[in-house]
Amino acid sequence: MSTVLVKGARPYGEGDPVDLLVRDGVIVAIASSVAAADAEVIDAGGLVALPGFVDLHTHLREPGREDTETIETGSRAAALGGYTAVFAMANTDPVADNAVIVEHVWRRGREVGLVDVHPVGAVTVGLKGEKLAELGTMANSAAQVRLFSDDGLCVADPLIMRRALEYTRALDVVVAQHAEEPRLTSGAQAHEGELAARLGLAGWPAVAEESIVARDCLLALHVGARLHVCHVSTEGTAEVLRWAKSRGTRVSAEVTPHHLLLDDERLRTYDPVNKVNPPLRTAADARALRAALAEGVLDCVATDHAPHAAQDKDCEWSAARPGMLGLQTALPIVVHTLVNPGLLDWRGVARVMSERPAEIARLPDQGRPIAVGEPATLTLVDPVGRWTVRGAELASIAANTPYEGMELPGTVVATLLRGKVTARDGKATA
Ligand code: DOR
Ligand code: ZN
């Protein structure tokens, strides 16, 4: 029996403050004043209560690169960022393309117990794009894989993609595509545009993403399958998605915090901390992505949290690996780019950070309403709190944050996973 009393929070930032009483992981009372002598009390005066965040796109690097992140350190970062479920991408070493690896990741996540760790299964064997992995075996394993992706690489062959959509439709799971036509991005280092040309960096054109998204939307419509598009980075992709959705395509899409905030002006720093795939686009793209997320053309925010070792980032641009940390900075970036400018209210934050991703991945007990009888899987946010990002202080082993030294608004004060406090006042607790 555990009892937690959250005092004085405003669910979704609406109405008067209320107390939430949690017993054995379930919200059992919500009222203006609740008393419980035996409870662990969380003073939530001035805080906004939201459903726990769900990240459809996290790189936890275990197995294989435990020098940059482990399931344990990544789980800490997730809990501190307000997350209660994360999807661990399959581009580990060995690749998560079979039941043994996905079950290992799932089990290790349960042992750590800070956040629900759902392994993503690879679409193709070894991420090679040639032969479908055993999707059914992974879906029916103990890990119950619900999302399949070759992320880091694109499922480029249209016939392999069609077969993947046919299998996933039958299994009622979803392919998450990293949309990048490899023939158009060979050697690419940065967004193809004026700046990359002037700096002498080989370009990654917007059309390499947009053409794959258009193709896959048409394939998904043809097959009748669901499709999820990873890290949308261009205005043109948002336009393709708007069109596809208007035609009844079962497509969902995510956008990263960095593509909402940053743009290719960062190239001028020559600092590879800004190198990411897909690359940072133009300021006009970022503006269009913010509008598309607010409108619902883009469904959710996903971090693409991508830890890298110092030696793989503190080197010349062309040799650096793409990717940046994201779990602990996602909410502040959303507050900064969408809430404070008035594009999204806290209901909207709940939608893009929790409810939609939980629906896309069909998680039955995440993204639930804050109501009596529902699981106490919650994030408590201080809307006026501010903090200064220091890579070395983040819970991840790696420190590659592009927000170093920035003061950001919106702090996660506590995270609860089915009534268990997993983070509180900047400390992961389990
Ligand atoms: O920037 C990225 N980093 N994009 C990807 O698609 C893969 C990821 C990684 O694994 O580091
Ligand atoms: Zn990717």
Rg is 21 Å
The largest pleated sheet is described as: 9 strands, mixed
Unique ligands: (4S)-2,6-dioxohexahydropyrimidine-4-carboxylic acid, zinc ion
Report the top-level CATH class: Alpha Beta
Tell me, rounded to a whole number, the average pLDDT. 98
What amount of the residues lies in strands? 15-25%
| Residue windows where pLDDT falls under 50 for at least 5 positions | none
CATH fold assignment: TIM Barrel
> Could you say which overall geometry the principal axes of the C-alpha atoms support?
globular
Q: Any idea what the CATH architecture is?
A: Alpha-Beta Barrel
* Helix segment tally: 12
**Helix-and-strand structural type:** alpha/beta
- Indicate the percent of residues in helices: 25-40%
- What is the number of beta strands? 19
Tally of structural domains: 1
Find the CATH superfamily: Metal-dependent hydrolases
- End-to-end separation in angstroms reads 17 Å
Q: Could you characterize the architecture of this molecule?
A:
- The protein is an alpha/beta fold.
- It has a single domain, classed as TIM Barrel (Alpha-Beta Barrel), CATH 3.20.20.140.
- The protein has helices at residues 71-80, 99-112, 135-139, 158-171, 194-199, 206-223, 235-246, 257-261, 283-295, 310-313, 330-339, 346-360, and strands at residues 3-11, 18-23, 26-31, 40-43, 48-51, 53-58, 83-88, 116-119, 147-148, 174-177, 190-191, 203-204, 227-229, 251-255, 300-301, 378-388, 407-417, 420-424, 427-428.
- Helix 2 links the parallel strand 7 and strand 8.
- Helix 6 packs parallel to helix 7 (235-246).
- The relative contact order is 0.16.
- The site of zinc ion (ZN) has 5 residues, from loops.
